[in-house]
Design brief:
5 helices, two-stranded antiparallel sheet, Four Helix Bundle (Hemerythrin (Met), subunit A), mainly alpha
């Protein structure tokens, strides 16, 4: 039986909820992967801004949150790469020894990057507890070493991994970039 709309206080109330008619399509594996890379590049820009501000006596209150989010973001991105993208590449290209070796090397770099991010967080806490002006060069150098290495890693993945992901299908969950 079809229920008719009712009127309550001058408004029409329908006995069903109207949902959007547009169909959401899950991103491709390539799009999700590239989205994680872009997020990491944005992080590098934020870290560079922090490094640049160390010498001008800027308010460093947001630094701890930025460095904490660095570790969290890397873990999330690397988890997606290592649990979703890399296994799919291994299934699709099982005979490509060079690719398989590259994926193993990238996983090792991921491990090192996460460790470096954790060290940055600890070093920043120590940096803030001392005289920041006296140690700005040291910590700035450490930050630059991290985001420069991360940018090279991202460039490599964009050049060598993203093209291999083209056409490999869609992710199962549109929320993969959370």
């Amino acid at each position: 039986m079809i229920q008719k709309p009712s009127k309550a206080a001058g408004t029409v109330v329908y006995p069903f909820q109207v949902k959007s008619c547009s169909r959401q399509v899950a991103p491709t594996l390539e799009q999700s992967f590239d989205g994680h890379l872009q997020t990491k590049l944005n992080l590098c820009c934020a870290l560079e801004t922090l490094a640049d501000s160390l010498h001008i006596g800027a308010n460093l209150a947001r630094g701890p949150d930025l460095l904490h989010s660095t570790s969290t973001l890397l873990r999330r991105a690397h988890s997606f790469e290592e649990q979703r993208a890399f296994p799919e590449l291994r299934r699709t290209y099982p005979q490509d020894r060079r690719l398989l070796d590259t994926l193993t090397r990238l996983e090792g770099e991921h491990f090192e990057d996460r460790g470096y991010a954790d060290e940055l967080q600890e070093a920043f806490t120590e940096f803030l507890s001392t005289d920041p002006d006296a140690h700005a060069n040291e910590f700035g150098y450490m930050l630059r070493g991290f985001f420069s290495t991360l940018r090279r890693h991202i460039a490599f993945e964009r050049e060598h991994i993203v093209p291999k992901l083209r056409g490999l299908g869609r992710t199962h969950d549109a929320g993969d970039r959370t």
